């Protein structure tokens, strides 16, 4: 599935001897994905478990969460109502 549905949309990297660093998300553990990375000649490394400080995207997520907390009521006036409805499910 990954090869057919996702790979065509990726950047034409990694190049041989590139270093690919992944977190420990379940999808990253699939052997097929790891084989695709290794087939390019790239080196594959995994971050240690529970290490958001080493994962740059976590900084972006943190900024996004802060923005949502600060401006959600202005941008999405129904947001509190949606949260209450979701909690009831």
UniProtKB/TrEMBL annotation:
Taken from the record, one Pfam family name reads DDE_3
Q: Where is the Tc1-like transposase DDE domain?
A: 2-72
Query: MF terms per GO, please?
Result: nucleic acid binding
Note the superkingdom of the native organism: Eukaryota
The record's annotation in InterPro entries points to:
RNaseH_sf, Tc1-like_DDE_dom
**Alphabetical list of PANTHER family matching this protein:** TRANSPOSASE
Organism of provenance: Phytophthora rubi
Q: Where is the signal peptide?
A: none
| Protein name in UniProt | Tc1-like transposase DDE domain-containing protein
């Amino acid at each position: 599935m990954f090869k057919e549905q996702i790979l065509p949309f990726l950047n034409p990297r990694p190049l041989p001897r590139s270093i690919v660093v992944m977190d420990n998300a379940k999808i990253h553990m699939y052997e097929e994905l790891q084989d695709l990375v290794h087939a390019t000649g790239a080196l594959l490394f995994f971050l240690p478990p529970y290490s958001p400080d080493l994962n740059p995207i976590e900084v972006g997520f943190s900024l996004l969460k802060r923005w949502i907390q600060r401006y959600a009521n202005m941008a999405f006036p129904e947001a509190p109502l949606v949260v209450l409805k979701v909690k009831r499910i």
